[in-house]
Design a protein that fits this description.
Elements lengths: L3 H10 L4 H14 L3 H9 L3 H9 L13 H13 L3 H9 L4 H9 L2 H13 L4 H9 L3 H10 L2 H14 L3 H10 L1 H10 L9 H11 L11 H8 L5 H15 L5 H9 L2 H5 L8 H15 L6 H4 L2 H13 L3 H12 L6 H9 L2 H11 L7 H14 L5 H9 L2 H11 L2 H15 L2 H4 L1 E2 L14 E2 L4 E2 L2 H4 L2 H4 L2 H9 L6 H9 L7 H10 L3 H10 L2 H14 L3 H21 L5 H10 L3 H4 L4
Antiparallel strand pairs: 1-3, 2-3
Helix pairs in contact: 1-2, 2-5, 4-5, 6-7, 7-8, 8-11, 9-12, 10-11, 11-14, 13-14, 13-15, 14-16, 15-16, 16-19, 19-22, 21-22, 21-23, 22-25, 25-28, 27-28, 28-33, 32-33, 32-35, 33-36, 35-36, 35-37, 36-38, 37-38
Length: about 600
């Protein structure tokens, strides 16, 4: 009964019906008291995998009377067989980790190293990694790292690095206090420990994904001080860790402290790194830190460094690197003409237009589009008509309109503001139809009903002729409210003092008045202010009062009763326009 053929037949029975499977497991359990039988069973292909599968069919509670017998016997059999480390490894491969963890806790130094090494090498799913953490693998691995010999330290760190890919395990690592021990290791100058620094820095990069690391106030400054003292691999991990830390929503104080301590000046030299990963990590970090100090960033970067960043945009093949570099450039003060001249000389504008033209919803990188939209604000400032013309001639306006339909909320806001800056000058650039044309005037197709002159997207930056109004209105009709203020600012340029009536008629023609009323009801305070400004001009026209007054008055009365008192003056004017104030005066 202990022969290989008989044992193989029993193992095959494990895959058959319930009764035969139960009998086969029972027989194998009776025979496994013999060491040689256990060894032979473990070597039969598929045996351990099937036993693990059978063990999972029942309950882990051995006291339950209705527990499946086959499942209970399979677990007992696996327990007997786990005395062989090779069998325990096969069980781990099948997703049964109890024997492996037992070895980590109670095994010899060599068996601990074997198990830790296996964890780092096994192709574990995220669920497997979470299970290992939940079942207790992390504590003994940390103990190995702290007290073991060099081989134990290295194998445990590699195992912990693998397990740190699980979000739940990151929390366990932070609560274990390992961050302090890892930082001490990174500062160590003992040559024998140098091989441990790379996996240690990799673990820190993963752990930094959790906001729990923010409790360790000194860690960020320690990481920064290590940057120039580390190998490229460790530098990359440290930059990844720092980027993870500063990206947390609750990290504003950390970012402020980093800037005060000169973090940007410390990281900028890495922009010249040949290693693309390090260069990108440095760019991303400076981009994140510069978000809060846009007006002061020019004090942190000199013009030669701005040229370096612009050159990275031109030469890099990585969208992530381009996005970070452009993000930094977008945070430089728009009023700095020298920066604008540098970017223009680097031909950055045609490149950004080319990038945007080639992007589709399938291959678009949101952060890249957002960064481009930020830089385009510089090239469309209303105070520089020559720069606006340069931008329009290079195809910026169609790109901005594309962003309105396909971009994220952040890029939509910036695109709408760029279009608003351009549109502010349209009235003065529009060619009056009263002028005499000696060599044949413009075609009637270019006549603009809003500006009462001849317009085009390229020559006068006209919202009407560029087709921008429809996508702007569609944003107001959507469910997201974040871009309302920027969109309304853009549409407001069609209601300037000289053209308010024709602009009002056009907005009514494009069915946008109802959209404005909708935002007045549910938008932010700033958006409501802009809605009131727009409606005050629209309702100067009697026809529009008659068509839209009834729907607007319901919203206006509700704001008068329940809204912000700072809106009261504007609401009062609108109600007066609608001849309602005398009836609703008690609301003010």
């Amino acid at each position: 009964m202990k022969g290989s053929d008989f044992l193989s037949a029993l193992v095959k029975s494990l895959a058959r019906d319930v009764d035969e499977r139960r009998e086969a497991v029972g027989l194998l359990l009776n025979l496994c008291s013999d060491f040689e039988v256990r060894r032979r069973i473990g070597r039969i292909r598929g045996c351990i995998v099937m036993l693990v599968s059978i063990s999972n069919n029942g309950s882990d509670d051995n006291d339950r009377e209705d527990e499946d017998e086959a499942s209970r016997n399979a677990r007992m059999l696996l327990s007997y067989m786990s005395g062989n480390t090779q069998h325990a490894l096969h069980m781990a491969e099948a997703g049964y980790f109890k024997p492996m963890i037992k070895y980590l806790i109670e095994g010899s130094e060599m068996s601990k190293v074997i198990m830790a090494t296996a964890i780092s090498r096994l192709e574990l799913t995220d669920q497997n990694k979470a299970s290992l953490g939940k079942e207790g693998a992390i504590a003994p691995l940390i103990e190995m790292f702290k007290t073991g010999n060099l081989e134990a330290k290295l194998s445990s760190l590699n195992a912990l690095e693998s397990l740190s890919n699980s979000e739940k395990n990151i929390q366990r690592l932070i609560h274990s206090g390992i961050v302090v021990a890892l930082m001490q290791l990174l500062f160590s100058v003992t040559s024998v420990l140098m091989t441990l620094r790379e996996p240690a820095s990799a673990i820190l990069a993963k752990v930094a994904k959790s906001e729990g690391i923010l409790v360790k106030h000194e860690v960020v400054q320690q990481m920064l001080s290590l940057l120039n003292l580390s190998s490229p691999v460790i530098q990359n991990h440290l930059l990844e860790a720092l980027n993870n830390i500063v990206s947390h929503s609750s990290a504003s104080k950390v970012r402020k402290k980093m800037k005060e301590n000169g973090a940007i000046q410390l990281v900028v030299p890495f922009f010249n790194e040949k290693d693309a990963r390090i260069r990108t990590g440095a760019l991303r970090l400076v981009h994140m830190l510069s978000e809060d100090i846009q007006g002061e960033l020019i004090e942190e970067l000199d013009y030669s460094q701005i040229r370096v960043i612009a050159n990275i945009v031109v030469t890099s093949s990585s969208d992530c690197e381009k996005a970070a570099a452009l993000g930094i450039l977008s945070n430089l003060p728009l009023s700095d003409r020298k920066t604008t001249e540098i970017l223009k000389n680097e031909n950055l504008l045609p490149l950004m237009v080319s990038i945007m033209s080639s992007l589709t919803p399938q291959n678009s990188t949101p952060t890249l589009v957002e960064s481009i939209s930020g830089v385009l604000l510089r090239f469309t400032v209303s105070t520089d008509k020559r720069l606006q013309r340069y931008s329009a001639e290079n195809g910026v306006i169609p790109i901005l309109i594309k962003m309105l339909s396909t971009g994220s909320e952040a890029s939509i806001i910036k695109a709408a503001l760029s279009l608003a800056q351009l549109s502010q000058n349209t009235l003065h650039l529009s060619k009056s139809r009263k002028l005499k044309w000696f060599c044949g005037g413009p075609s009637m197709d270019s006549f603009c009903e809003v500006h009462d002159g001849y317009c085009s997207a390229k020559s006068t930056f006209c919202l009407v002729k560029s087709g921008a109004v429809t996508p702007l209105v569609e944003i107001l009709e959507g469910e997201e409210r974040g871009a309302d203020e920027a969109v309304l600012s853009c549409l407001s340029t069609l209601l300037q003092d000289e053209i308010w009536e024709s602009g009002s008629n056009y907005l009514a023609k494009k069915s946008s008045v109802c959209s404005v009323i909708r935002v007045l009801e549910s938008g932010s305070f700033k958006a409501k202010e802009k809605c009131i400004w727009i409606l005050e001009r629209v309702f100067r026209v009697e026809a529009h009062r008659e068509e839209y007054g009834e729907s607007a008055q319901v919203v206006l009365i509700d704001i008068a009763q329940n809204g912000d008192t700072l809106l009261a003056s504007g609401v009062a004017k609108l109600l007066a326009q609608l001849d309602l104030l005398q009836y609703q005066s008690t609301y003010f």
